[in-house]
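Hello support,

Our group uses your service weekly, and this is the first time we've seen a run hang past the timeout. The protein is phosphoglycerol geranylgeranyltransferase. I'm not sure whether the cause is the sequence or the server load. Input pasted verbatim:
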Amino acid sequence: MTLSVRRGLATLGRTATIVGRLLGIRDSPVPDEWTHVTKIDPERGKDLPLCFPLYLQHTSAVEVGGSTDVTDANTEETLELVANRPRPAIQEPSGVKQITERTRSLASFMAIPEVLNGDVESLIGTLGAGVEYLDEELAPEAVESAAGWLPPWLADPLTEAAVDWILASAAFEAYIVMNPDSAAARESGVTADDLLDPRTAKRRAMAAERHLDSEIVYLEYSGTFGGTEATAILEAISEGVSRPQIWYGGGLGNREDARAVLDAGADAVVVGNVFHEIADEQRSTVRRALTALDHDADRAAIASWIDDAVDVSASSAASYLSTNLDVARPTERAREYLITTIATALALEAVRAELPADPDLAAVADAVARADPPVLDELDGVVDRDWARGLLVAALADSLGIETDRPVQHLAAPIAHS
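Update from on-call engineer: The timeout came from a worker crash unrelated to the input. Re-ran successfully.
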């Protein structure tokens, strides 16, 4: 493909984009209807609840990414678990080598971060390294895999087109990082001197919209709630931009804070830490329940124990569900999901007790199928029943030291390892 042809195609693309905007047509991969995004960190130790699809049915989408200890392997593992179970997943890479053919096939699209108030490396250097990786490694490997028989004079322009396609199908995520003590700030070079007032944030968001073509403007407080400062910034940004979706993330754990940022102009809230905290709390709670309850305890007995032993209203599960304004009675729903989780753990422990010595994977699968754990009924209509049963088989097998092909090490499975 000659330089003149590429320039002509680029001009045609820009013209089509401008015409589309005049006609009110959005070409962003980010749906307007997303109002709640759950951010899942692939880092080991950032676990998922055992019955995580029950919770994820109440979010609009899942964003997989983190700032530290993220690799291509743990990103693939996490996407294998959560993509379309039951909500679409997107990948937010923090390093270029986290993007693989497998992550691209699992994720609906990539959200490429661009930090507007960080150092030059976080805005230009990282993107440049990413484009180089796509151009010199990922795209050539994909073309070689799909059409290795092509001669270079055809393969080379096809590789260039593949790079353009990958970038065109991604969403560019313009970050404003406002917690200088966070990992995101350290990775992007944001210090206390780089924090933005509302007018400056508005101007940078406008530049991101007009110059960078960012599909998302993300105000990030990383584990702390921005309060009135954040709502003032959101109001300013929403006055300045019209095309990008405005996301807010940081410290959300109740309905009031979520409503405040949405009312201030955010299109979607992003919750992350509190979702992983559900797993941490449930691991402890379920282990107590396994000691206190018989393996054949019914839902009524489990509910009675919970009412005596757990303050569900103060749980991370209730906090997480309350951040979605469309979820009615989040505390009651969190209680039901905890009952299901405990019932499932009891059923798996009962299966373990009935297994022969040194069982293989087939024996575990047969035993789980006979037990028909209650979570399978709860998950009907949320995820595929056979997939859910396979996940429970893998969790139990892993606890017995039996190798499986499911990445269950990311689950907070409350069954004791042998």
